[in-house]
Amino acid sequence: MAHTIPRRHPDAPVPIPAGVSAIGTALGVRGPDPARFQQLGELLMAGDPLMDEFADWMSTQDSALVRPLFEQALARGIDSVENAPAPLRALFDELESVPEWVDADQLETAAAAMRSGGADGLYIARDVALLGGYQFAGFNQTLLRTGALEKGSNTRFAETSQWAMDVIAAGGLAPLGPGYRSTVRVRFIHSMVRRHVGAMPDWDADQWGLPINQTDMAATIVGSLIAPSLGGLGMGIVNRPAEYRAIAHLTRYVGWLMGIRDDLLPNDFRDAIRLLMHTSAALATPDETSKRLAKPMADDPMHWQYRHLSPLRRRWARRQHLSISAAFLGPKAMATLGLPTRTLPWYPLLALPRNLVRSGVGFLPGGRDWMAARGDRQAHAFLRTMTAAPATIGATTTVAEHVA
């Protein structure tokens, strides 16, 4: 079974976004060789053994008794749980054993650089990484079976953004920090989704593989944390080389916390781009679900919260975010997603000079701290615009309703 490749895996690498391909080419990064491409297909059947074993055990217990213990260990550490059950202790002993290669200073350097992207950084995450990710039909199958359409893409992105902002908060990835807690909680929900969706009568493992498998998770982690920094270059958000290395280091540690295999985690920023290229070449196979998920997301700005001139600002926001998608995804991907193909990429062009100036400020003494604080305020303000209610990790999956 470990070497079975689901039918969703293409026969050969598929085209990837032009922007990612161009940067990869400039850095001398090539597409996956046959062995790597086959491995990505095989790992569509691989889950997260550590968390899956815990979830299997938890399913045999009274969740009303066990879930509070999980939350206590997550918030205060496993040693705070008196007479902790062996499976719970095994899980958190592993999670709390920070790998020797983790550099706390690099994590803080990366987090500050990523916070500096502000609202524009979140725009790229939303309009490029998340929207473009709907071309990954295999992953869409899981989303649709966990209530993605019912809960809405707006709520899903707010939830994803809250996770990312926890990760890049000052001290977010310190032991028991908010980024650590949110990442482990997401990992737990992923495991519950694998159990729930995999047991559905209409889930075809021979076609789709395992829900939220290793290949999907690797693509998601680089898409969430690397793609915004990469796309930011196209909007004038520029960091120091050392900061890009630190961003890759942060991505590696978050991926480790998420349960992703070591050989699917980046060693440096160039390696992160390689992973982004390779996973995209294995997963970007759109189908009818791509339009079903993308079109409602394009219209989400029409429901955003503005204090003044709401109708006008909502229409403006819709055009603004479509222009970002058009600039980075290109007309072919826009057509695949059922979105307007003649949208002019005006917002990135307007944002470019402004962000170049701000990036320059970040290079000055004290400038990075100022930019990080400013960007953090912008990002939180954008979240409040998207949804009035605070985002809750796991709220967009119906599985969360059964494991809370």
Task: Give a quick summary of the entry.
The chain is an all-alpha fold and 404 residues long.
How would you summarize the topology of this molecule?
Blueprint: H1 18-26, H2 34-42, H3 49-58, H4 63-76, H5 86-95, H6 104-115, H7 118-133, H8 137-145, H9 148-151, H10 153-167, H11 178-198, H12 205-208, H13 214-225, H14 227-232, H15 241-258, H16 269-283, H17 288-298, H18 310-336, H19 346-362, H20 367-386, H21 400-403
Helix pairs in contact: 1-16, 2-16, 3-11, 6-15, 6-20, 7-18, 7-20, 8-17, 10-11, 10-20, 13-15, 13-16, 19-20
Structure in words:
With 404 residues, this protein is an all-alpha fold. The protein contains 21 helices and no strands. Helix 2 crosses helix 16 (269-283) and helix 13 packs antiparallel against helix 15 (241-258). The longest helix has 27 residues, at 310-336. The model is unreliable at 400-404 (pLDDT under 50).
> What is the average per-residue confidence, as pLDDT, rounded to a whole number?
94
- Please give the alpha-carbon distance between the first and last residues: 32 Å
* Percent of residues in beta strands: under 5%
The number of domains:
1
Q: What summary fits the major beta sheet?
A: none
